TrEMBL record:
The lineage of its organism: Bacteria, Bacillati, Actinomycetota, Actinomycetes, Micrococcales. PROSITE patterns: PROKAR_LIPOPROTEIN. This is Lipoprotein.
Length: 147
């Protein structure tokens, strides 16, 4: 599936790049991904933040935090967000539930919490945990819900 490779690559790069490298490496990584996949990718590791794709669905609540990587392709989106703490990540999950998203599954993987939700229009995989530096990092993947 064409979308899974960029999602997997972006998630892996996010944890690898967060706080570790400067802009020249980011530009190199972004350029390589964009050239190979045709996907517009935004990765930022200097703490100033990246941005969500311009067409990120407005009915998907996105928690407050610093976006460190994101991309969107063919109506599928991914974002990695550095959160203030685990409570802020939980508040983002609570906002999805309050907006009418229903939990399909949840797991605590020993330091990483993962939730799969849907509202009938969008499916959201919402997971968070600590990176190697003690920062809380959230990954959101947003895909059209099966009809």
């Amino acid at each position: 599936m064409r979308v899974l490779a960029p999602i997997t690559l972006a998630a892996a790069l996010t944890f690898t790049l967060t706080g570790c490298f400067g802009n020249p490496v980011e530009n190199l990584v972004e350029g390589a991904i964009e050239q190979q996949t045709g996907v517009d990718v935004d990765v930022n590791s200097d703490g100033s933040g990246a941005s969500l794709p311009a067409d990120w669905p407005s009915d998907v609540p996105t928690p407050a935090g610093t976006v460190v990587a994101s991309f969107g392709v063919d109506g599928t989106y991914s974002a990695t967000i550095e959160m203030a703490d685990a409570a802020a990540a939980q508040a983002g999950l609570d906002a999805l539930l309050a907006a009418g998203y229903e939990s399909q599954s949840q797991a605590d993987l020993g330091g990483m919490k993962m939730n799969v939700l849907t509202n009938g229009t969008w499916g959201v995989t919402y997971s968070w945990g600590e990176d190697g530096d003690g920062n809380t990092v959230l990954n959101m993947a947003v895909t059209p819900a099966p009809q």
